[in-house]
Amino acid sequence: MIDKLDPKQVKEMLIYTADKVIEQKPYLTEIDSAIGDGDHGIGMAGGMLKAKAKLKNQEYESVYDVFADAGKAMLMSMGGASGVIFGSLYLAGAKGMEPKRELTAADLTVMMRRSLEAIKERGKAQPGDKTMVDALEPAVLVMESAHAQGLPETLRAAETAAKQGMEDTKNYVAKFGRAKSLMERAVGYQDAGATSVWLIFQGMREYVEGK
Amino acid sequence: MRKIINEPENIIDEMMEGFISAHARHYEKHPEVNGVISKHRRKGKVALVIGGGSGHEPMFSGFVGKGLADAAACGNIFASPDPNTIYETAKAVNSGEGVLFVYGCYAGDNLNFDMGEEFLNDEGISTAHVRVWDDVVSAPKERLEDRRGIAGDVFVVKVAGAACDAGLSLEETVRVTEKARDHTYSIGIATQPGQLPGLDKPIFELGEGEIEYGMGLHGEPGIKRTTMRPADELVEILYQNLMEEAEINAGDEVCVLVNSLGSTTLLELSIVYRKVGELLTRDNIRVYDSDLNHYCTSQEMGGFSITLMKLDEELKEYYNAPCYSPYYAKEEAQK
User: Fold this and answer.
1) Total-model pTM
2) Structural domain range at position B248
3) Which of B220, B298, B301 to mutate to test the interface with A (most CBs of A within 10 A)?
4) How much is the ipTM here?
5) Residue A117, exposed/middle/buried by CB under 10 A (0-12, 13-18, 19+)?
6) Which of B79, B81, B115 faces A43 most closely, judged by CB atoms?
């Protein structure tokens, strides 16, 4: 179990998470095909590949630079709504932070809160709109009350909350993207972006637990 | 559906390569990103940059040309280009008078183009955008900005291109382009799904003999799913729905586009137009110009859309300005 991450470990964690998302490309495609246009898996996997390629041969002084580089690689290559949104998940929270050589649960929590606010601002999405915010916001909220218990516990709580948030998107009518025009026909299906948020927290949790 | 492709992951790069080399007389590719750039672009005017997801060819790349767009930023299949592609493409054609972006109103495009504009603004380049939202059934009137852009892009890009070419200021090109956008109304019907290259399932499913009124270019559900009818009946229903939303009245003058969504043929589009023209005449709406073509497609999707742009003297002037791309051209108008 790891309670603090140095830049090299953050890099390993993001690469591990990227591999996890890439592996789940068919699953994300299937979920998005039900109510979207089926390209979420392709987009996420493509972005994660770019993030991996960017991180692979770099050495970092600050933990935030690792997130920022991964986010930038996604933002500048993916396109679609998910490019801006998931690029911002890593980039927006890390941008402008004081360089640091270790990442604690509290640091990650602050970063994720800043990313969440930037995503809500840019994407104009609120909880209940059937977007990735429905998984990210509850995850950030539990992180804010759990971070004193260390990184593994914080990420366990975040993953559980993100998963619940993802399940809850089944009950919502979409307000954005192509599922929007489905109205109540989208009810019963989970949002693909919320699913990716869950996978990302799961990846981070597995890495710090040493799985 | 069998697609004529090589490796699915190379689709966009290979399409770009082929498209640019086939049209080397007119186009060049941005050295780093998927931007199609007109070789004949003029300096000293507002640069017009269009763009969106690939897969709708000839929209958007085929609308780069003289009197049209100076460049198109192209995304992956059905996905908006990323902000860097938009930024680099626009920067390559900016000649100091600012950049006007015209694109279809979709969540992904809005986010990415906004960010691309921010990068340009950070460098002191002035920008503006006009989002096209002509699909009248995609959201009610009260939520105009939630409507999607479909084949109406053609008329809006045509007018925007002419306005930029005429040397108007950025502010003025926005005013004229918004007027074209606000006077343009479309509605579509789907008879058969298209399929994304590299995926093994169609984008949506339609039962045997089923059609859907108002379905979007990416399979977004429309207003009503029903069974196939003769062309005249389909057109009558579409026309009625379109005219309920369009602010077009007896005595007005319009341009008409009957656009194939992919596999619907010119033969069929002609039969559609026959009825559209008849209904417009009945309602005492004068057809100034009409066009039957495959402009805004969704792979081999079956179906068509009808677009009307209501004209006034100013729009007519810009509509009449000659333009040329290998996929869209207007001669000097016959008076």
Assistant:
1) 0.92
2) 184-311
3) B220
4) 0.86
5) middle
6) B79
